[in-house]
Amino acid sequence: RTQAEMAHTCRGTINLSTAHIDTEDSCNIVLSNGGRTYHLKASSEVERQRWVTALELAKAKAIRMRNNQSDDSGDEEPASQSDKSELHSTLKTLSSKLEDLSTCNDLIAKHGAALQRSLSELENLKLPAESGEKIKAVNERATLFRITSNAMINACRDFLDLAETHSRKWQRVLQYEREQRIRLEETIEQLAKQHNSLERACRGAPGLSSSSTGITSTAKGDAQSAKGEASDEDEETEYFDAMEDAPAFITVSADPKHHRRSGSNLSGASEGHPEDWNLEDSVFESSNQSSYNESTCKDLLPKKRRRTRIPDKPNYSLNLWSIMKNCIGKELSKIPMPVNFNEPLSMLQRLTEDLEYHELLDKAVKCESSTEQMCFVAAFSVSSYSTTVHRTAKPFNPLLGETYELDRLEEFGFRSLCEQVSHHPPAAAHHVYSKRGWTLWQEITIASKFRGKYLSIMPLGTIHLEFHSSGNHYVWRKVTSTVHNIIVGKLWIDQSGEIEIVNHKSKDKCQLKFTPYSYFSRDVPRKVTGVVSDADGKAHYVMSGTWDEKMECSKIVQSSHGSTSTEGKQKTVYQTLSPKVLWKKYPLPENAENMYFFSDLALTLNEPEERVAPTDSRLRPDQRLMESGRWDEANVEKQRLEEKQRAVRRRREAEAMEALEEGKDYEGYIPLWFERKVDAVTGELICIYKGGYWEAKDKQDWSTCPDIF
């Protein structure tokens, strides 16, 4: 095994390179390494000796591999003449030792067979009983020696065959590599001479250096040169991985000051004016400023002072046995899960956290172009995942009829309302209205699958966003979230999949790909890439970034069809202007690691507020107790609320059975502030806000609210 493999072993493995191999008696073997000990039992003494021999050989191999790895970890130096002579000397010594090994192999086989014959003849002689027993014992020892010798002989024979087979091949490969290196050195020398002559010619040609007539793009290691000067672009070239269901593409940065249209090989698919990037709208320029400045400006606005911290998370150890013993004999749905796995927020509040970067939508309102607006909508869809990177604890499951409001109309221009509209399957409806020109609504059902080492969380449902002035209606879905190391190890979260954002008015599209984490990938972790295109399929912008840090947008100046990739997909080369930052994550507050890694917004979500509905998540007692650090009381309260909810469900089931027996229709649970309608755009049945909540809040008339707490 390599060291990397040894670092990721499963249970029951032991590192033989540092292990001790001992024998207790005629049949038992003891393997020990540090505090771990394994006892193995063989069927006979001969079988035990075979195992000991095999283990010793494996241990020697493991030690050699470890030493080789430590030797190979140093920096390589160019081969000199002394290195070559040393290599030849080493090969000559190895050949000599190989011949010695072959001779010893033959001698052991010869003498071993002679010893066995002599012992067999001695055993056949008529000797006293005591002498016969001793001869028998000696014969058994000789048998063990023969078995060990045969194992060594077989290993030697295999090594000899392998060495003889590959020796000539290795010599040919070595010679080929030397020739390749010489040819490469000659090629580099020629290229250097050509580069110098081109530089001299370029300096001597007036006007040529002021314009650029082409670019250079590289795909899969194959270089294709276009006419003209491309050294400036080459230094800023960026590459994007192709999406699985979308055409493969590469982007090449261009200088807007020097770019001119030309008859180069980039004619074709789409073209644009680079000067438009600087002049056509100020929205991108304002978004290019740091998000930190915006958060600072927010603090200067007159607004209600909100809390900036919550009590530190208690350092309670989780007793798994106390959980398991409470599960014995109970139905799965009745097992009380302790709050140790939770964070002091409900799923409705986590859904509201999607609005943390609502200013992206405020900027999108100002866009005159629908493709520009799509860029901000795409950045907003990615920003909703930035809070999940450290948040491995699960939110509280909302009770049926539970609500959550976030009224920031005076501060940020929007107000949000969530309601748990179904319990099996769990579904939440969400509606946000902004007086700055947009409305967002969604119904999300959470489906999850436990797959052994990780948990897949799949949010089902569509998100709708409509801008009031333009009527642009955007629809998209969320990607899959995966929680890794559920059983053993440190929990971590990844997002993977694709988001297709569609503007149902203009038919613009943006295809975003969330690249899943791979240990062997060279990509930046948590990478997101995508392309914004219009109704005709013409690409306008390239989106790039990470879902936990920032998203950038690059305007496409020109595009062309490049070479075909190894997967058979047509590559598209996009020449883009320098990227502009649309979204950047706010820094976490101080001491966030002790406050469940909550962001500034998350810290305020469960802050007590007056005049909210009696079903609001802020009033949930078990959640409030957990936030205060009283986890034992929170567990008791959580169990009481869940049992109360089960009693209500049993009563509804009894009413449904009674209605069925009487031949009447039973409607079941009806959401209080939302109603199910067929969406005119997607044709799906979705819960849409029917109004009345904010009016009831103004009147403080909560008579229709159920008693769920």
UniProtKB/TrEMBL annotation:
Gene Ontology MF terms in the entry: cholesterol binding
Protein location: Membrane
Signal sequence segment: none
PROSITE patterns: OSBP (PS01013), PH_DOMAIN (PS50003)
SUPFAM superfamilies: Oxysterol-binding protein-like, PH domain-like
UniProt keyword Nucleotide-binding present: no
GO cellular component: cytosol; perinuclear endoplasmic reticulum; plasma membrane
Region (Disordered): 65-88, 202-237, 253-278
Superkingdom of this protein's organism: Eukaryota
Biased composition regions of type Low complexity, renumbered to the chain: 209-218
Bilayer disposition of the protein: Peripheral membrane protein
Keywords: Coiled coil, Lipid transport, Lipid-binding, Membrane, Phosphoprotein, Transport
Single GO BP term: lipid transport
The PH domain, residue ranges: 1-60
Pfam families linked: Oxysterol_BP (PF01237)
Coiled coil start-end: 174-201, 631-658
PANTHER family the record matches: OXYSTEROL-BINDING PROTEIN 2, OXYSTEROL-BINDING PROTEIN-RELATED
Family: Belongs to the OSBP family.
Protein name, as recorded: Oxysterol-binding protein
Organism: Anhinga anhinga
